[in-house]
C-alpha cells in the first residue's frame, strides 16, 4: 500500500495523458463558446428589453440565463488550459475561481430548472390547490435566496482542488481532507441524482394525467409535458453522463488502477465538456415554458418570411393573457402561455 501511495504522489494528475484528445476538446469548447456567447446575449436582450421578465413572472428563467453566463465566461480559460496540455490552471486563485463558477452554474441551473418542472407539476397534477412554487417565483427575493443557499454547497471547491489533484486514495488522508473530499463528492452526486428522480416522478405523473383527460382538456397538459421533457433532455445530455463517469473514476482511483484511470479521466473530461452544452440547450426550455418569450425572440431575430412559419408551432392555442413587446416606437401584444 505504501509503495502504491508513493507512486501516486509522484504522478502529476493535472497534466494530460493524451494531448491529441485535449486539443480536440479545446476546439469543442471554443465552438461552444462561439455559439453560446451570442445566443445567451440575444436571450438576455430579449428578457430585459423586449420581454420584460419582471412583469411576466419569468424571474426563474432569467436566473437560468445568468447561470449560463457564468458558464460561458469560463469556457475560454478551459480551452486555453487544454490546448497547453494541462487539465487546470497552475495558478491556484485562477483554478479555484474557475471551479467555483462552474459549480455555481451547475447548481443554479439545476435548482431553477427543477423549480420550473415542479411548477408545471403542481399546475397539472394538483390543479386547484395552492401552488407554492407559483407564489415563490413572483418574488425576486426567492431567487436571491436560492443563490445564497448554493454558496455553502459551492465553497468546498475553494478548499481543495476538485478537478484533478484530489480524491480518496490519491494521498494519505487526514481526517480534515477526508471529510472535505467526502462532502464535495456527496454534493456533486446528490445535486444530480435527487433532482433527476424528481423530474422522472413529475414526468410520469403529468403523462398519466394527460391520459385521463378528454381531448378538449389536453392542451395545457401537453405543454406541461413538453416543459418537463425538455428539462429531462437537458439533464440526460448535460448532467447525467459526467455524473456516471465521475462515479466510475472514483472507483478506479480507490482501486489504484493507474492505467485504467488515464483512460477514464479522458472520458470524464470529455463528458464534462459535453455538459457545457447546457448553455446552448437552455433556450429551448425557455421557448417551451413561455410562448411569449419565443414569439418575442422570433420577432426580434428571425426574418419576416420565417416568423409566420415559426409562430405556427405553438404547443397549443394562446391563453387570454398577453404581454407587450416593444420595438422602438412600435408596440404589439403577444399571447402568453401559462407561465
Automatic annotation (TrEMBL):
Subcellular localization, as worded in the UniProt entry: Membrane
GO (cellular component) term, any one: membrane
Membrane topology: Multi-pass membrane protein
SUPFAM superfamilies: Family A G protein-coupled receptor-like
Transmembrane segments: 24-48, 60-79, 99-122, 142-159, 186-204, 225-249
Pfam families for this protein: 7tm_1
GO MF annotations, alphabetized: G protein-coupled receptor activity
Domain G-protein coupled receptors family 1 profile, residue spans: 39-286
Endpoints of the signal sequence: none
InterPro entries, sorted: GPCR_Rhodpsn, GPCR_Rhodpsn_7TM, HCARs
Keywords of the record: G-protein coupled receptor, Membrane, Receptor, Transducer, Transmembrane, Transmembrane helix
Record protein name field: 12-(S)-hydroxy-5,8,10,14-eicosatetraenoic acid receptor-like
Amino acid at each position: 500500500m505504501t509503495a502504491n501511495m508513493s507512486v501516486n504522489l509522484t504522478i502529476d494528475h493535472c497534466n494530460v495523458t493524451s494531448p491529441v484528445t485535449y486539443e480536440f476538446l479545446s476546439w469543442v469548447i471554443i465552438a461552444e463558446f462561439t455559439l453560446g456567447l451570442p445566443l445567451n446575449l440575444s436571450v438576455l436582450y430579449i428578457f430585459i428589453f423586449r420581454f420584460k421578465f419582471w412583469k411576466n413572472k419569468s424571474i426563474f428563467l432569467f436566473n437560468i440565463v445568468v447561470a449560463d453566463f457564468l458558464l460561458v465566461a469560463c469556457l475560454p480559460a478551459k480551452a486555453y488550459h487544454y490546448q497547453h496540455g494541462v487539465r487546470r490552471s497552475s495558478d491556484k486563485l485562477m483554478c479555484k475561481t474557475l471551479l467555483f463558477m462552474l459549480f455555481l452554474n451547475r447548481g443554479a441551473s439545476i435548482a431553477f430548472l427543477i423549480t420550473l418542472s415542479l411548477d408545471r407539476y403542481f399546475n397539472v397534477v394538483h390543479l386547484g390547490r395552492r401552488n407554492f412554487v407559483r407564489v415563490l417565483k413572483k418574488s425576486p427575493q426567492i431567487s436571491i435566496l436560492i443563490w445564497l443557499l448554493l454558496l455553502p454547497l459551492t465553497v468546498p471547491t475553494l478548499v481543495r482542488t476538485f478537478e484533478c489533484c484530489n480524491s480518496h486514495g490519491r494521498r494519505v488522508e487526514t481526517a480534515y481532507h477526508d471529510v472535505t473530499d467526502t462532502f464535495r463528492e456527496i454534493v456533486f452526486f446528490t445535486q444530480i441524482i435527487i433532482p433527476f428522480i424528481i423530474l422522472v416522478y413529475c414526468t410520469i405523473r403529468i403523462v398519466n394525467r394527460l391520459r385521463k383527460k378528454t381531448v378538449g382538456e389536453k392542451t395545457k397538459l401537453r405543454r406541461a409535458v413538453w416543459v418537463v421533457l425538455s428539462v429531462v433532455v437537458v439533464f440526460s445530455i448535460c448532467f447525467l453522463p459526467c455524473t456516471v463517469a465521475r462515479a466510475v473514476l472514483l472507483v478506479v482511483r480507490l482501486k489504484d488502477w493507474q492505467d485504467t484511470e488515464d483512460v477514464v479521466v479522458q472520458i470524464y473530461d470529455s463528458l464534462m465538456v459535453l455538459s457545457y452544452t447546457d448553455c446552448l440547450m437552455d433556450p429551448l426550455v425557455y421557448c417551451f415554458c413561455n410562448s411569449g418569450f419565443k414569439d418575442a425572440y422570433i420577432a426580434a431575430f428571425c426574418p419576416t418570411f420565417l416568423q409566420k412559419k415559426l409562430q405556427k408551432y405553438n404547443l397549443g392555442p394562446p391563453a387570454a393573457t398577453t404581454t407587450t413587446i416593444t420595438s422602438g416606437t412600435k408596440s404589439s401584444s403577444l399571447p402568453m402561455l401559462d407561465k
